Amino acid sequence: MSLPPRSFYSLTEVAVRWSVMPFDVIGWSTDGLLALSIAVPPVKTEPAETLSGLVDVEAPHLLPLFRRDGAPSPTVVVRRLKAGEGAFCWIVEPMEGIGITAADVLVRRAEVERFERQYGFFNGLHVPDVGGGPMERRRGGPGVPPRHDWDAFYAALTRRIHDHGVPATQAELVRDMLAWFEARDVEHAPDESTIRKKITSVWRELSRA
Fold first, then answer.
1. Tens of pLDDT along 90-111?
2. Percentage of residues in the chain with pLDDT exceeding 90?
3. Domain boundaries defined on the chain
4. Are 78 and 54 in contact (CB under 8 A)?
5. pTM surpassing 0.85?
6. What are phi and psi of 5, to 5 degrees?
7. What is the helix (H) or strand (E) element at residue 114, kind and residue range?
8. How many whole angstroms separate alpha carbon 37 and alpha carbon 17?
């Protein structure tokens, strides 16, 4: 039995999926290319409306959470929200707005898929539009691509270590890279043992005194 597709991704998962920095995703949203959302309990907005569930937020207000240089802020306060195709509305209750963290910033699955179609992505990989559709997979013959894109995996591994440093344990690195695969395609992600084999030699070098 297959599970239904995910309803949304965290912004960090989207950044990993596309092998970019969260700051880049914020920039695209600021340019109006991608909608960002948060999940909220019922709040009152002007004029006399109650919003709840997944609502859109304005990307510039989120920049302090994802600074490229310097320490990011742990929280920001959001004071305007938008539901559906409507306009952004001011929050009137609670008067102080809603405090959110980086983990609260989400991107709807439909929005991720729309963006990837528009800009030539497939499962997080940027591919040229050459016709025939990226969903087609060859099952035999010479030159069949590997089941998993290990080149992209090692590129993402390098970025993870560059951006966040060497983790305390190999198990932590395995979990991070499994999350990277699952953010790209949860149904076809390799298991932990396969990822561990792929990073063992890298971890050995990183662990040298």
1. 999 999 999 999 999 999 999 9
2. 33
3. 8-122, 144-206
4. no
5. no
6. -65, 155
7. helix 109-118
8. 17
